[in-house]
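2024-03-11 09:14:02 INFO receiving multi-entity request
2024-03-11 09:14:02 INFO entity count = two
2024-03-11 09:14:03 INFO echoing inputs for audit
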Amino acid sequence: MTYSHHKEETIACPGCDLLQRVPHIRSGGKARCPRCGELVGIGRRDPIDLPLAFTITAAIAFLVANTMPLMSLHAVGREAQTTIIGGAYQMWLEGSQITAVIVAFCAVLAPGFQLLFLLVVLIAVRRPPAPMWVGGMLRSAHMVAPWSMTEVMLLGILVALVKIAQLAKVEAGIGMFAAGAFIGLIAAILVTYDADEIWKRIRWADGQDPPLLPTAADLSGKAVR
Amino acid sequence: MTSAARQGLVSCLTCRLLTRTASPTAPGHCPRCGARMVVRRHHSLQRTWALVIAAAICYVPANVLPVLTTTTVASTGSDTIMGGVVYLYQSGSWPLALIVLIASVMIPLGKLIALGHLLISVQRGSVANPRDRSRLYRVVDVIGRWSMLDVFVDSFTVALVQLSPLMSVQPGPGVVFFMAVVVLTMLAAQSFDPRLIWDPAEGQGEAR
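2024-03-11 09:21:47 INFO inference complete, emitting structure
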């Protein structure tokens, strides 16, 4: 049996539709479209288990970041503190409900769903062929990805802290550090996983098995050079 | 060099599988992932124009109306986005002032201009600098989400500074418009099909 990622593969560039053969890429290497410069292939050493490990760790960081206080404020003997969702909730109370919904979506729901979908997909494709619904879930993970804005949120909090620090004493909480760890882990997932490899392990919509199924030796990552 | 479309091939937008189709006008569904296939995104230019124009309209109130209103015992004041940048600059944190200026003022405006330029050049069938325009599109697509920065700044300022009657902060009407600009330009970038940039050059015969 041949492994699809051991030989050249013909694709159309998603950026300019140019037909091209993408050679097998070494681990850590990248292939760009010769015409428009779009990224068309990436070499990954271990595209399933490594991102899965990061996803599980990220899920823990995500839970901590969303349950522990982000920061607290002390001024003239009074104290206030907030969590991530608290930022959205206060917006809702203050009368800007649309803003509250978008903030809650970009800061909590989108990262949460992105993580959940990736977790299910990565676990499911460890034993190929994975059922077809896994593909739908991978598609959903890619759809929410641009709206998952934890790193933008953390920079926003930093700016807010500097602004408020003029008025009151502000302290960072555990949630803030967990959110920082979460951002690093999401970045680690993105540089270790490869959507093409995942698609190759999912059963086709027309009921066939994936035509070029990787073998067990291949799955362990050792056969991939 | 030739595109997939000229060879009667369609690349699935969801899973990238390359398929030979019976008919380019109705390519049907992807045999691998089951998604509906299209040779080019349907009504890409119309949709992108509609979203860009809507975002441009919202850009004005987003910058004119206040995003935050601060109430203290003595006074009530309100801040626009530029007001927030000036406040950060005056309080000595010019690096943050610069970040907010870039994320909240320059990126949304730059995105509107860039998308407008891409749309007009595609509609005129331009064959000039397609590689640069492709790169411009990728930058617009990647950088757009950072404009949401100011919305998060405002949310967490509102969430923390609730020490009434001493001092409290409320969101202003500008936030909603500003957020609309960010969301609409992100959707506009997603609905634009970058492959359209390269189609005119293909039509000219083997230009390269």
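2024-03-11 09:21:48 INFO post-check: The first helix of chain B runs from residue 44 to 64.
2024-03-11 09:21:48 INFO post-check: Helices of chain B lie at 44-64, 81-90, 94-123, 130-143, 149-160, 174-191, 199-203.
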